[in-house]
């Protein structure tokens, strides 16, 4: 039985472990923290429990797949609640829109708030999104590429995406379809998940809009932290070993450069293959200092060589009181739109008129907060450290005050009991390049076969997984990333 070591018990690493143990390998997962999750972690403080990573869960079948590979299932491991509305959007003019689950419910919402023309346009939009997803997911997201010419292996799917306008820009495409400016924002803000302004993102990234606006948003009982716990439980029940509090310090390589295992602070562990889920630039810097990294993850003149996604300030706040008129996920759009992205991505400054996400996990997680209290997850996009000009040591407290004033103005309870503010400096200290948890942006030159690959032919026996490699950023991407890594191991070891 071959032995595979997985570095990191985040979602990508745990998905890889499930697929690897299902393939019959002996699997050891090494995680530096004391709990599974990686970026999908948790924070406990003063009787409040916070989910510290992704808050939006879509496409639960992508969780079911690694669970089934390990001999379990989603039904056995997770109790999912459908959120309806998936989001409640608040606009600067005082109006609101809800993202409702199901075609008819959302069409009715649009008809009521935006009129019959936009409601009819939504019918066509849903058909287009579904075709886009069916063409894109199996052919360009959920597969390994060895070279850019592999795109030509499925010319029919590529031609279909081209004919559908998948390679036009997302923002203008949405504006052509809908008249109401509020819908322009509601159906294009998802480009931020790909690290791009809507007017810069390709229309293929409307697939993210499909995932949450059409397929639905879910919340697991026990919080988002229940997802890595489910994957870890399935992997260990199938025979994998997860060692917490174990930090990998070195890759063990033979004279030919092939990876033969890893070293931790306490021991050396032999392995036939290693799956590494550390953020790619950090992995090369820490574990492969003698290997020239791909351009996108290599430092050039004091900056990284690729285009990195914006970062975010996240404020975890435990407050007394329960917000009224708010949903689980709330998007507060500023008056400004395109100019705010210029501030964020071009000038490297705070958005002059920011849009923000507030998630209230405690509305659906009774264990998250004491009775009569709430947890608030407040996210504001900010520049990454590669382009930003902000001194976060100096701006930490002003940002906290800025977000507190926003919460008060938006009608949230502000009697703060406990809090934790996370800035780009904190993301960088956790090993995330450019101080962003969202890795490389999904520009055309950093998408599909053009994104840093999950193998480096100069280092046989090493496979990468996670948001820095294929297919990309976000829960619906890193779970397939684990499977693609396991397929690489299968190719390597047979």
What's this, in brief?
The chain is an alpha/beta fold and 494 residues long. The chain is 34% helix and 20% strand.
Task: Describe this entry's structure for a reader.
The protein has 494 residues and is α/β, with parallel strands linked by helices. It is 34% helix and 20% strand. It contains 15 helices and 21 strands. Strands 7-6-17-18-19-16-20 form a seven-stranded mixed β-sheet. A five-stranded parallel β-sheet has the order 9-2-1-13-21, covered by helices on one side. The chain has a three-stranded antiparallel β-sheet with strand order 10-11-12, with no helix packed on it. A hairpin with a 3-residue loop joins strand 11 (259-264) and strand 12 (268-270). Helix 1 packs parallel to helix 15 (475-493). The radius of gyration is 22 Å and the shape is globular. The termini are close together. The relative contact order is 0.18.
Tertiary shape: globular
| Secondary-structure content class | alpha/beta
Poorly predicted parts = none
Radius of gyration: 22 Å
Q: Kindly state the percentage of residues in helix.
A: 25-40%
């Amino acid at each position: 039985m071959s032995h595979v070591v997985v570095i990191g018990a985040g979602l990508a690493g745990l998905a890889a472990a499930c697929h690897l143990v299902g393939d019959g390998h002996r699997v050891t997962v090494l995680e530096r923290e004391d709990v599974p999750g990686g970026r999908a972690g948790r924070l406990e403080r003063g009787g409040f429990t916070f989910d510290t990573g992704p808050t939006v869960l879509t496409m639960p079948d992508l969780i079911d797949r690694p669970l089934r590979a390990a001999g379990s299932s989603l039904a056995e491991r997770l109790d999912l609640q459908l959120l309806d509305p998936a989001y409640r959007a608040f606009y600067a003019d005082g109006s609101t829109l809800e993202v409702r689950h199901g075609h008819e419910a959302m069409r009715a919402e649009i008809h009521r708030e935006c009129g019959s023309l936009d409601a009819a346009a939504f019918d066509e939009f849903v058909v287009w999104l579904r075709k886009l997803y069916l063409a894109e997911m199996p052919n360009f997201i959920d597969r390994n590429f060895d070279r850019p010419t592999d795109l030509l292996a499925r010319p029919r799917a590529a031609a279909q995406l081209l004919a559908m306008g998948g390679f036009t820009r997302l923002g203008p495409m949405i504006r052509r379809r809908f008249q109401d400016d509020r819908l322009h924002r509601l159906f294009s803000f998802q480009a931020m998940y790909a690290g791009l302004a809507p007017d810069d993102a390709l229309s293929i990234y409307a697939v993210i809009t499909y995932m949450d606006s059409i397929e639905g948003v879910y919340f697991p009982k026990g919080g988002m932290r229940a997802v890595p716990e489910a994957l870890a439980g399935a992997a260990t029940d199938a025979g994998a070993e997860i060692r917490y509090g174990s930090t990998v310090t070195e890759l063990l390589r033979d004279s030919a450069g092939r990876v033969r295992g890893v070293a931790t602070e306490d021991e050396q562990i032999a392995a036939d293959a290693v799956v590494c889920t550390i953020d790619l630039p950090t992995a090369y810097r820490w574990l492969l200092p003698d290997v020239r990294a791909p351009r996108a993850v290599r430092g050039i003149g004091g900056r990284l060589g690729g285009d990195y996604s914006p970062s975010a300030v996240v404020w975890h706040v435990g407050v007394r009181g329960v917000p009224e008129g708010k949903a689980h996920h709330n998007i507060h759009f500023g008056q400004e739109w395109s100019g705010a992205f210029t501030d964020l991505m071009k000038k490297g400054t705070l958005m002059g008129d920011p849009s923000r996400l507030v998630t209230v996990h405690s509305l659906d997680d009774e264990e998250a907060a004491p009775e009569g209290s709430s947890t608030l997850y407040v996210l504001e996009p900010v520049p990454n450290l590669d382009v930003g000009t902000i001194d976060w040591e100096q701006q930490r407290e002003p940002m906290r005050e800025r977000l507190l004033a926003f919460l008060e103005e938006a009608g949230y309870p502000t009697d703060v009991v406990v809090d934790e503010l996370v800035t780009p400096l904190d993301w960088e200290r956790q090993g995330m390049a450019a101080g962003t948890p969202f890795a490389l942006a999904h520009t055309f030159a950093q998408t599909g076969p053009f994104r840093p690959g999950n193998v480096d032919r100069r280092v046989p026996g090493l496979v990468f997984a996670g948001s820095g490699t294929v297919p990309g950023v976000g829960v619906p991407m890193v779970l397939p990333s684990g499977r693609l890594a396991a397929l690489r191991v299968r190719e390597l070891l047979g």
